[in-house]
User: Which sequence fits this backbone?
């Protein structure tokens, strides 16, 4: 049984606070706080919830300990990616965290596959939202704001009382920068944001967050990951578990694993020249061998650094080899992009 009420009257997160360069710098060398209300929250309850979700997604939910989370894909029977999500074990329930743009697809897919299972699905995005906080000074800022938390591993969370407000502190999984999400009731967001800002966090908008995402080489569903893509093409091995048992699309994933690599892979590019348009075709010797899915000009100490994310055919993905998008030259780069997270200043 499912509950499919869609959250309404949501205010879009702020694009920037007047200085994207400074906001990006806060994430790299200080601490930034940002809106995460664009993330939907779905709860799963009922006695079959763990077994059922384990049979739906690509990662191991069966062995997920309370207080822990996992990143996973939801596939169709042909092995193509319908959505990406985080699943957290809250003890008496599972919490699904996904981009709001995927909410209706997730709810309808869940509804389709719940038949005789004891699983209740509820969209609680109107009751639970989040602020994000990231940067090298993030722990210092959290302590100054009154959060006393123990060491957390990526995708581990703890529920804490903060000024009589119930808050879940969730460690992020971006390996390039330490980050947390603070889940709480929407009516307490302003109070918490003000406290974090007073403690030293700089307000950060979605434009700087997008720069951080691309710099870290993290694909976004709907842009870098599409329904036509296969899990192994995305290079997101963290979403896959190869010994958990059956799930939707598992046969295709296992066939790819046993027979060898897929033909394409997600990768990074250094750009020399103008930024190419999204979905531009990458060429080598006059033939198409890849495509661009994200681009950014990163404001760094030595000047703007133009980079891109996209897909490349494996057989031509030789280190140091150059490619073209129109008059723009590209070269392959490892992800995350080097030096950006090694103390480089603006």
Assistant:
């Amino acid at each position: 049984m499912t509950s499919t009420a869609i959250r309404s009257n949501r205010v879009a997160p702020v694009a920037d606070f007047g200085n994207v360069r400074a906001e990006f710098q806060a994430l790299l060398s200080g601490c930034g706080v940002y809106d995460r209300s664009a993330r939907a929250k779905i709860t799963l309850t009922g006695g079959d919830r763990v077994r059922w979700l384990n049979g739906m997604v690509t990662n191991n939910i069966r062995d997920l300990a309370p207080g822990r989370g996992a990143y996973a894909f939801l596939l169709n029977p042909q092995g193509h990616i319908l959505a990406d999500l985080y699943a957290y074990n809250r003890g008496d329930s599972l919490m699904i965290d996904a981009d709001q743009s995927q909410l209706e697809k997730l709810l309808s897919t869940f509804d389709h596959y719940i038949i005789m299972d004891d699983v209740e699905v509820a969209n609680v995005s109107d009751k639970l939202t989040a602020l994000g906080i990231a940067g090298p000074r993030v722990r210092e800022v959290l302590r100054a704001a009154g959060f006393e938390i123990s060491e957390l591993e990526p995708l581990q969370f703890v529920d804490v009382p903060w000024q009589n407000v119930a808050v879940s502190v969730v460690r992020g999984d971006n390996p390039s920068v330490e980050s947390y999400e603070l889940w709480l009731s929407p009516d307490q967001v302003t109070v918490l944001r003000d406290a974090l800002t007073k403690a030293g966090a700089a307000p950060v908008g979605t434009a700087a967050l997008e720069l951080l995402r691309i710099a870290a080489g993290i694909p976004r569903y709907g842009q870098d990951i599409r329904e036509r893509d296969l899990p192994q093409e995305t290079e997101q091995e963290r979403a896959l578990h190869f010994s958990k048992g059956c799930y939707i699309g598992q046969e295709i994933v296992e066939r790819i694993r046993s027979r060898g690599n897929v033909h394409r892979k997600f990768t990074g590019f250094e750009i020399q020249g103008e930024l190419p348009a999204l979905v531009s075709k990458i060429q080598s010797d006059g033939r198409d061998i890849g495509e661009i899915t994200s681009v950014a000009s990163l404001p760094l100490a030595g000047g703007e650094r133009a980079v891109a994310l996209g897909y490349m055919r494996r057989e031509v993905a030789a280190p140091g080899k150059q490619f073209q998008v129109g008059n723009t030259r590209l070269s392959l780069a490892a992800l995350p992009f080097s030096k950006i997270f090694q103390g480089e200043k603006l």
Observations:
- The longest strand covers residues 287-300.
- Confidence is low (pLDDT under 50) at residues 2-9.
- The CA atoms of residues 55 and 246 lie 6 Å apart.
- The radius of gyration is 21 Å.
